[in-house]
Specification:
The complex is a heterotrimer of chains A (323), B (395) and C (289). Chain A has 323 residues and is an all-alpha fold. Chain A is built from twelve helices and two strands; from the N terminus they run αααααββααααααα. Chain A has one domain. The relative contact order of chain A is 0.17. Classes of the chains: A mainly alpha (323), B alpha/beta (395), C mainly alpha (289). Chains A and C meet through helix 5, helix 10 and helix 12 of A and helix 3, helix 4, helix 9 and helix 11 of C. Chain A: This is Amino acid/amide ABC transporter membrane protein 2, HAAT family.
Chain lengths: 323, 395, 289
């Protein structure tokens, strides 16, 4: 890791943890907390999608895992009484396990075939949530408590959200922390032997396989990590809205996760984060355009594709080709 | 004082007084009311009819000089947010309302959105008027949501009872889209029908919201030949197609729903086949509409080109907010004052002929007054227009 | 049982027609056109405007839909897809463009035609009733026949016309076709226009029966994706087979599973996933698309 990289990371951390809360306090735009929290959480989900892109698979099924993660967290909290902080990793793990079971048969597929089957998966998950008794079906799960206090060996690490004066800030910090961890993990994966192998998969699967790479294993691993991220994102959303319905994450969300990756750039680790920020935050800002909101939003998206078909980050890419 | 300074001061005074007068004329203080709901995508009709009825009414109020609250005339401004029927967006919308200092919001239109915005509304002292029916939104400890219309578990039994007495129906079948709102409405509708002694012959058939051909969906339901077919929570887009499929398959019984519908949509989509279709509406049928309602429909039509009959039920929320604040001006910024006022509030209903009243109800269903009292107007469609079958009140 | 089959056949005919346009575009350019459903909706609204608002005959509306959508398709290919495909490193990038176009059309439809459900009056009255065994309104029969005629016409066009042969060559091997002197740009444009036109035609046909509203676009695209997956992406016979199979599955499934209610569609989608997992190329597709 070079010095400029380190400096960049330092600036980024300073911005998200210090500058943003300060600017919000100064400007009084408290509503930005939720918007930025959403951006952080959705970018965790799109980080997962990006990783599946990295092994050459178009994943339009992340909404399914976000929904599963949300339900795991909600059910554990309301029916078993588990602390939110414990449900968070459990939601991720549950999704990872399910994704291995689903991934075994479907990861053999490529291109649009994989894309389509993941698209169907989102709808299957929604219908399952409607039909299962444990999810409370159509009525959803509501009145979920806010995250409680987290104490490890008697040391209080995180206070009870219900007693915090400003839960918005608390959720923002939680989401941003998770986002930073996610992208750190993603960065680590990409710049490790695993990432190198993934790139070989993206370029030529047969070749990778012929030189002794266990492609099936690798694909499963990447997909499981991807789904883990999706589950985490879903679980935190549930904590914020304190409710979940089968329609909390739908096909549109799955498609959006994929679009965020495209907009940011498929060749860049930070791509999905930037893409999520631009598209989600942009939509919110455009609400002043009223009935022309969608028109302007979509026109901007098309224009972006025409000018920068390889994602916004390709602007800064002098070397050409993925890092 | 020389002439020059006299001139100066007079000019100044003139300008100042002119400015003051014009300020008094043009710049009424503004009362912002929010709307968070769906105005794009498949369910756009629901939110659009909501938003437009609010905007039409606001423009009308502003044109006649504002709304009198505690002796001051207020202009009404509608701040709208499109949540795309996504609960996550709905939260963002509610945050924007809080940011704009708004305390009264109409919407969201669906169950999941209404549940998702609850924490934000409670943290930011916002009273909101969802068009969603889950009781948990309105029962204590929840206290910031006020149901903006008649719930299906209130209108359903009234309709079934009326049809049992007047048409002698004995069996009923339910069909619903496989989404939260319709399925919940189907379940509560079926329970209500059973409680009334009706035999429920089919309540398991569901359809995808994007179905383009309802004949296969309808076939197993029609085979049970019910006296009454209930389209639970049906969207205005699906209603004509469902009716058409049922009739074309030879169904001759009654068809009803507990949601609001639009006569023009039924006319175009099902034509004569929709005759006799029973739905819940507002007060725009000729027998009930007051002059104010007719003027509202005129202004709406002028402003947006075409009226939507669903707006009849949706004009009320804004009226309730304004009238309640007028009854207790402290409520403008203090929602606790609003809640106290709700318990005793009463005002004449401007949209209906006769001596109908605006008041808050819901004690029977929710244990507290968390519902606007709108007349439960049950309509039957006939040749392009709605005719009133009967009018009831919810308590 | 006859009724179920008849319903499935009718549903299949309309599905197959929707899937044809999508699969044509996919086979030519490897573009998964997310905006296909929106084009279908647009076509429906054009027919609605011509027939219900302007009061012209239905056939005029159909032609208007076909022409407007064909022009729209050609413009989209030339000015949007072509430059993006040329410049982007990964061909999946066109998915973002297609999604952007889908959103744009959604917005345009909302502004142009409004948020309400629309429909045109029945073009033929009356119901065909064979001894209560098959009940089918005449307008459905007419639309079903028209749909099948269009499918047959399309197949004939692809088989016997010069443009059709060129497009089939392109779909088979782009580079080889180019070497053989096929004008790739020209036929990509024609193919896209034809695909969009088919979407518009189905919209125009179905507006008489199911009506149209702005929300139908996205779900229609997704259904069309499923059909071409069943049959095999980019294969014309596959799209037709996929359409009819999905139609039958819905018709039969809805009747058989009616008693289980909410899980009907779950069963349909889940079995689809299992099928695709074990036969990824669909019924007739080339493996790996």
């Amino acid at each position: 890791m070079t010095k400029t990289n380190l400096a960049g990371i330092g600036v980024f951390l300073l911005v998200v943890f210090v500058a943003v809360p300060m600017m919000i306090a100064v400007s009084g735009r408290w509503d930005f907390y939720y918007t930025l929290t959403s951006v952080a959480l959705l970018s965790i989900g799109s980080a997962g999608v990006w990783l599946t892109f990295y092994i050459g698979r178009i994943n339009i099924g992340q909404g399914a895992y976000a929904l599963m993660g949300g339900y795991v967290s909600a059910v554990l909290m309301t029916k078993v009484g588990v602390s939110f902080w414990l449900t968070l990793p459990l939601a991720g793990l549950f999704c990872a396990v399910i994704s291995v079971a689903i991934g075994l048969p479907i990861l053999r597929l490529r291109g649009v075939y994989f894309a389509m089957i993941t698209l169907v998966l989102t709808e299957v998950t929604r219908l399952t949530a409607l039909a299962l008794p444990v999810t409370n079906g159509a009525k959803g799960i509501t009145s979920i408590p806010l995250p409680g206090a987290l104490t490890v060996f008697g040391v209080p690490l995180i206070p009870d959200f219900a007693t915090i004066e400003n839960p918005k800030l608390a959720f923002y910090l939680l989401a941003v922390t998770l986002m930073v961890l996610t992208y750190a993990a993603l960065w680590r994966i990409v710049n490790s032997r695993l990432g190198h192998l993934c790139r070989s998969l993206q370029q030529n699967e047969e070749l990778a396989s012929s030189i002794g790479v266990n492609t099936a294993h690798l694909r499963l691993l990447a997909y499981a990590i991807s789904s883990f991220f999706g589950g985490i994102a879903g679980a935190v959303f549930v904590a914020i809205s304190q409710s979940i319905y089968p329609s909390s994450f739908v096909v549109t969300d799955s498609v959006n996760f994929m679009l965020y990756c495209f907009v940011g750039g498929l060749g860049f680790v930070m791509g999905p984060m930037l893409g999520t920020f631009l598209l989600y935050f942009g939509w919110d800002l455009l609400s002043v355009a009223r009935e022309y909101q969608l028109l302007i939003y979509s026109a901007a998206m098309i224009a972006l594709m025409l000018v920068l078909p390889n994602g916004v980050l390709s602007l800064f890419d002098r070397r050409e080709g993925p890092k | 004082m020389n002439r020059r300074s006299l001139l100066k001061s007079t000019t100044f005074a003139a300008i100042a007084s002119f400015a003051l007068v014009s300020a008094a004329f043009a710049e009424n203080p503004v009362l912002k009311i929010g709307f968070v709901g769906v105005t794009s995508g498949p369910a756009a009709a629901w939110g659009t009819s909501n938003q437009r009825s609010m905007e039409a009414r606001a423009a009308w109020i502003n044109e006649i000089g504002g709304y009198d609250i505690g002796g001051t005339m207020y202009d009404v401004e509608i701040v709208a947010f499109d949540d795309q029927k996504d609960p996550k967006r709905a939260i963002a919308g509610m945050e924007q309302m809080a940011q704009a200092g708004i305390h009264y919001v109409v919407g969201p239109n669906v169950d999941d959105g209404a549940a998702a915005v609850r924490p934000v509304a409670e943290q930011n002292n916002i009273i909101y008027f969802p068009y969603a029916f889950p009781k948990s939104l309105y029962e204590a400890p929840a206290s910031n949501a006020i149901l903006g219309m008649v719930a299906n578990y209130q209108s359903g039994p009234a309709i079934y009872k009326y049809l049992m007495e007047n048409n002698g129906i004995k069996t009923v079948a339910f069909i619903a889209g496989n989404e939260s709102d319709p399925l919940s409405q189907r379940d509560s509708g079926a329970a209500a029908a059973k409680a009334l002694g009706l035999e429920v012959v089919s309540d398991t058939v569901t359809y995808q919201m994007d179905t383009t051909d309802f004949t296969p969906v309808m076939l197993p339901v029609i085979k049970t030949s019910p006296d009454l077919l209930v389209l639970s929570g049906v969207s205005p887009a699906n209603a004509p197609q469902l009716i058409r499929s049922a009739r074309e398959l030879g169904f001759t019984g009654l068809i009803s729903t507990e949601t609001a519908q639009d006569a023009a949509v039924l006319q175009e989509g099902a034509g004569d086949l929709a005759n006799g279709f029973i739905s819940v509406g507002g007060a725009s049928t000729p027998e009930l509409a007051s002059d104010a309602m007719r003027e509202f429909v005129d202004r709406y039509t002028k402003m947006f080109g075409e009226y939507n009959d669903e707006s009849n039920t949706k004009v009320y929320a804004l009226e309730y907010i304004l009238a309640t604040i007028a009854a207790n001006p402290a409520a403008m910024t203090d929602i606790e004052a609003f809640k106290t006022t709700m318990d005793t509030f009463e005002a004449p209903n401007p949209y209906m002929v006769g001596d109908a009243k605006l008041s808050y109800v819901g004690t029977t269903s929710f244990g507290q007054k968390r519902q606007v009292s709108v007349p439960l107007v049950v309509n039957a469609y006939k040749d392009g227009v709605f005719e009133t079958l009967f009018v009831a009140q919810v308590d | 049982m006859e009724q179920i089959l008849a319903n499935g056949f009718y549903l299949g005919a309309q599905y197959a027609l929707i899937a044809l346009g999508l699969t044509l575009i996919f086979s030519l350019m490897n573009v998964l056109n997310f905006a296909h459903g929106q084009m279908y909706v647009f076509g429906g609204f054009v027919t609605y405007t011509v027939v219900a608002q302007l009061g012209l005959p239905f056939i005029v509306g159909l032609f208007a839909s076909a022409i407007i959508l064909a022009i729209m398709g050609a413009l989209i290919e030339v000015y949007l897809f072509r430059p993006v495909i040329r410049k982007s490193k990964r061909e999946e990038s066109t998915m973002l463009l297609a999604a952007g176009i889908a959103f744009f059309l959604d917005a345009a439809i909302l502004l142009l035609f409004g948020e309400k459900q629309r429909g045109v009056p029945k073009i033929v009255d009356g119901v065909f009733n064979w001894d209560m065994r098959i009940i089918m309104p005449y307008d459905r029969i007419l639309i079903g026949v028209l749909a099948i005629a269009l499918i047959a016409g399309f197949i004939a066009f692809m088989q016997y016309s010069k443009a059709g042969r060129a497009m089939r060559a392109l779909a088979q091997d782009r580079v080889a076709a180019q070497l053989m002197g096929v004008d790739v740009d020209r036929y990509s444009m024609i193919g896209f226009a034809l695909g969009a036109m088919l979407a518009g035609l189905v919209g125009g046909l179905l507006v008489t029966i199911t009506g149209i509203n702005l929300g139908m676009g996205g779900p229609t695209s997704i259904k069309a994706f499923m059909m071409i997956m069943i049959g095999g992406a980019g294969v014309i016979s596959g799209a037709i087979a996929g359409g009819f199979i999905l139609g039958m599955m819905e018709s039969v499934g809805l009747t058989m599973l009616a008693a289980y209610g909410d899980i009907t569609y779950l069963a349909i989608f889940a079995s689809l996933m299992v099928f695709l997992a074990f036969r990824p190329q669909g019924l007739m597709g080339k493996p790996w698309g």
